[in-house]
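Dear colleague,

Thank you for sharing your sequence with our group. We've completed the structure prediction you requested, and as agreed, I am returning the results in plain text so they can be pasted directly into your records. Please verify that the sequence below matches your submission; if there's any discrepancy, let me know and we will rerun it promptly.
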Amino acid sequence: MQQIAIGIDLGGTQVRAALVDERGSLVARREELTDANGGPDRILSQIRTLSDELLATVKPSDVVGIGVSAPGPIDTVSGIATSIPTLSGFVDFPLRAELQKRFPFPVSLEHDGIAAAIGEWTFGAGKGVDNLIYITVSTGIGGGVIADGRVLRGRKGMAAHIGHMSVAPDGELCPCGNRGCFEAYGSGTAFMRRARARAAECSDTTLGRPGEDIHSRDVFAAARAGDALANRLIDEEAEILGRGFTSLIHIFSPDMLVMGGGLSNEFERLQPGIQGYITQWAMPGFKDVKVLRAALGQNSGLIGAAALAFLAESIRLEGPSLVANR
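Please find the predicted structure tokens below.
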């Protein structure tokens, strides 16, 4: 009998659901735009509707459980969403308990960055290693850590909010309310903000022509066409990421860094600058740590969420001592 898990990736833009088999392969997938202002009942209804569409294609007895990846902060020990800034109404909300009311099989809940790290560790670029850091570089910066063959969760399951380590005292304002966070400088949002400001000051660039907004993809396209400003912006972004990644390497001593998120679509252009910074500035014992692109692409969190359900089933059948802390 083939076992199947449902993975849910709840984001501020999309709710995605998938059936995932034991090899980490997507069997079927559904998605729709998140009704971010609709409140918890509406979001939970979206999750249930997408899941029901998937369940109609398989035998319910083949489904071992459902894993949900959600943005934080989330206390995954208690299952409480303490305050999700991208989703209206998710303040001290009992997310796991409310999800469990809607499904007849076990529900697992994880922070989205940690879920993506689990996905890459279980089925992706980090399969077989004991130490890795997953970093998503997109609208914001988040991540997860695998240390000594275990998922690092920390107090309340909220470890690895790596986008909010300070890299510039009294620096740029971050969405979290602090100043100088890694996210405020290295995220895709920060990259676009710099591009728009610099293009407005530069007459010798194809970026920001009258009536045109500037997005990350535009900067990379202009760079490939030889635009000097666009290439400088990308090199600066790679240096900022390299600086943050180097700090993470010194703290966690991983076998590898795995980069996902929207900016990872341009990994080949960014990687030399990121790796070059690490080679130059990391301490001698850390210079050989490599940065890899997420093998699961934009599905790291979705597949990682499903992996949670498989791990929960393993604990149920084999006992917690065999799969402790995974």
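Summary note from our side: The longest strand covers residues 14-21.

Kind regards,
the structure core
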